[in-house]
């Protein structure tokens, strides 16, 4: 058995864990990073699929992702803007196809006004609730007790307006049906992105990509840490006390440290045996946090043919199995790439099909968005994070009804020498790479500050 002694051991080599390790190193502390996978990056993964570079995991940066943008620049990486020139496409429930320009889905004037009214209402509430401590809002318990779908019904009798507003949280972000999470959880999602307007603006939320792929952020951080990053080392057991921790991982690896940072999503804590067990409240809390379910489908073509038709590649549908699509062509590439998203109950239906049927269903939908040329890509790939052993869902973990006010106020608190850092626990940047980086920085700063008091 290899026994290592360090000041801090970090479990998870995604953006959060590697940021924490890097910041701790800068402060003069020794670290060891243990990663279950054979790669770094966590939920960011830039893959080579049939000679096509595909962002299998998280990929986009928004203007408010200031921590991530700063780190990208610090690492010497560059970004490029998503292609968005031309008209977008909306596939209506009645089967009609409409091309449009701007952020709002095509709708009658009265419905468009109702959508704008609801978004303005949500903007005001999100600003009140805030990103960092929504459970502290005076109306938190009330807002956390009602499903977002029911809350919307109480605000408007316009079904189309409700479904449109719900889409940006349920389908596009939390990837859960709107009846399964609370209005408070929806408001937190919006506040974490700056506003509901920002959340509903695809040119804001899906603004830029990293040239060469988002996984490079983790790869460059890991390279600076060198041999202190251990791959293929799933953590199985953590012994802890006020005196420190001993972490046991596959490969007969044992790390003794003063502190441990768990930089993995909360649903994976149960894969670790804690000695002594975690406090009962934390065990209970993690049973009320769960991933959503979304599949990214990638289609690569010889050319970005949709651009010649005056299309941006952006498309939306409330009812089609692929609910949103975007031009995902890589920087400087001659070919064209599209990415689509299949979320929550539609993803359930998608995986009830066999592989060939799934591919045809997805491509048939792309044909409705873009035209017959979309039927025959040179590369087709599914990013199914629900089947990933060390993730088990996408994009991130959120609370069930009532969970945020019941547990949120202490879900980031350390337990003895154990600290927690991941995008799922973030305020600003919640569920994004930006939130992961912010949490890594915050946990590292807290550890350094505590040590300076000793």
TrEMBL record:
Keywords, in A-Z order: Oxidoreductase
Keyword Cytoplasm: no
Cofactor: FAD
Keyword field contains Oxidoreductase: yes
Taxonomy, superkingdom: Bacteria
All residue ranges annotated as the Amine oxidase domain in the record: 16-447
The family this protein is said to belong to: Belongs to the flavin monoamine oxidase family.
Listed name of the protein: FAD-dependent oxidoreductase
Organism whose genome encodes this protein: Nocardia tengchongensis
